[in-house]
Write a structure and sequence with these properties.
This protein has 421 residues and is mostly helical. The chain has 17 helices and 2 strands. The longest helix is centred in the middle third of the chain and has 27 residues.
Length: 421
Amino acid sequence: MSTSTVSATAAAPKKSGGRKKLTLPWIMLIIAGGLALVSLVRLISGADDLTSVGQVSGALSLAVPIGLAGLGGLWAERAGVVNIGLEGMMILGTWFGAWAGYQWGPWTGVMAGIIGGAIGGLLHAIITITFNVNHIVSGVAINILALGFTQYLSNFTFAEAPGGSSKQSPQVEPIYKITVPGLSDWMSDLQGKHWFFVSDLAGVIGGLVTELSLLTVVALLLIPGTWWVLWRTTFGLRLRSCGENPTAAESLGVNVYKYKYIAVIVSGALAGLGGAFLSIVASPIYQEGQTGGRGYIGLAAMIFGNWMPGGMALGAGLFGFIDSLKLRGGATNVHALLLLIAILLVLVCAWQLYKKKYLQAGISAACAVLLFLWYALTDSVPSQFVDAAPYVTTLLVLALSAQRLRMPKADGMPYRKGQGK
């Protein structure tokens, strides 16, 4: 078959979008601008923990399972299969990871978690691709099935194990963590000086080189790895063509069923890896309800990232950062977040005025004023808002980014071989 022809087919929808891709210099500039804005908020609010080494390290740990679930969703949806079942596949990963981990070691647990998630992905593939069941219905069913299945297994495995119960496993041996000697201490000292931008940058670097799990390194490498496989190989080109126009891909000799199956199984494996991370690295023990909706948040991160690995990683990092703020500083850090969101809304308002979208600009300005008043008139926020902050952030981010999104053209659409004839 002609690879160039498939390339033209897969790329065709992008021409109508009329959007230019962000280059690496622009991405780095945006990240630097965001860090400068956070630094400014830190100086104004006095919330020095916003960019501390511990905060960044905690945010990274919380972002990894979300990012792995998002990567899983990206693989499936790039092949045209909506995977709402990421949460259930993560649940399978947490249980199988802990079950194998406490018996045979953490790395065996990681492999078991991947296999558990892949089994969930295979089930979703059979239901949606072979039997053509609605993707949303199948995903929801897998989430329910995975929850009940793991609860059932826990009753006669963990409940009878020393140190376990029907709702949690015995403790799993943790995976080795690395710290870059010298650099970690230097960054920590520099961050403690609380200088503008410099200390914040030191906090970010320090968080990336302090107590870093080897599994975290593997997860971070999977992001550029996914980009390379899906956008720089013939295999990835054919897989993406199945999500854009499967009928055209079939006419050029692509085995659409095979590529969809591979994508959904890999999707489940990545979600399972995220689940194993939770039960082996984040907290070396399995607990019922451990995923806490991270599969759904990973799906939101993928949508925020416009079905691209880099954007998905930024979304996962944002959600991990907000969650870490809640856990470390509670009301103080979330109160400073009100000021940050207010400033961001002012920037959104200016951009909407530039684009002559006056209604959107007015709404952004009104929300910014309310948040400024809330910040100025209070010293903290209610505990209920602190708990809801990660989920509120998810909704806000999706609402603000909805207009620039473009999902794969055939995402979620039923496919039958030979339907174009």
